[in-house]
Amino acid sequence: MNYINRKIFPLCIRILTDHLPDLNSTVVRNYNFSRKIVRKLKPSQLFPNKPRKWEGGKEYYGFTYYPRYPDQEDPHWKESPLFLVERRKQYKGLPFWEKRILRNLRIEQDNNQCAIVINSEQMNKTLWKIKHLVTITPITFPDGIPEEKDIPNCHLHKNGELRIQSSVNIERLKATEEFQKSIDRIDKETIQNYTRKLWLNGFVDHSKY
Predict the structure, then answer these.
(1) Is the per-residue pLDDT at 76 higher than 90?
(2) Ordered structural domains, the chain, with CATH
(3) What's the rounded Cα separation, in Å, for the pair 105 and 115?
(4) CB atoms within 10 A of CB 106
(5) pLDDT for 89-100, tens place per residue?
(6) Could you tell me the pTM of the whole model?
(7) DSSP the chain
(8) Burial (Cβ within 10 Å: 0-12, 13-18, ≥19) of residue 20
(9) Reported confidence tier of residue 177, pLDDT bands at 50, 70, 90
(10) Which of 33, 44, 80, 97 is an S-S bond match for 138, by CB 3.0 to 4.6 Å?
(11) Which residues contact 70 (CB under 8 A, 6 or more apart)?
């Protein structure tokens, strides 16, 4: 402690008088002398009422969690096996180590700013280094994990939900393709030309068209 503010000087005097009652009051009130004594005191002596360690913590892997209430429990959640990573910051002007991570994830280009990565310990350490550049969304499976036959019918939403759409009706798909390739089908351009002539000419003989 190189300097003692004048506002906390009376507090230091009171603490010194409590811990060192043998000293003369005139000597304790000496600013320069008391400053030397405060340097030698430990933080626990300067602030005796300050708790040294919180109690009631729950040990987890790598950290200790202190709940707000004694009986507080975290809501049940299930970790996602995949993450949706979206780049939010500009690539230009970043340091080379952050650019290297973005290139490895292949999200450095403006036309491709999203990537799907696996939820692993090594990947989480990598994402921690660029957490200020990206948005990480856990991917959920409300309709269940898709199988190989369901891959063409899957759709990934921005909120991380992977939905499996209903399979396409093959008969309806064939009927649509036959209608689009039919010669008798009236296309959009023909309808526009016909209605335009009706608008310009007023009453016309429809048998001519």
Answers:
(1) no
(2) 9-46 (no CATH), 82-138 (3.30.1390.20)
(3) 7
(4) 11
(5) 988 999 999 999
(6) 0.50
(7) -----TTTHHHHHHHHHHH-TTS-HHHHT-HHHHHHHHHHS-HHHH-TTS-SS-SS-EEETTEEE--SSTT--PPP----SEEEEEE-S-STT--HHHHHHHHHHT--STT--EEEEE--HHHHHHHHHTTTTEEEEE-B-TT----GGGGGGEEE-TTSBEEEPPPPPHHHHHHHHHHHH-SS---HHHHHHHHHHHHHHSS--GGG-
(8) middle
(9) confident
(10) 80
(11) 56
Query: Of 105, 67, 110, 99, whose CA–CA distance to 84 is shortest?
Result: 105
- Tokens at 52, concatenated: 């040294």
- Asked if residues 160 and 114 have their Cβ atoms less than 8 Å apart, the reply is no
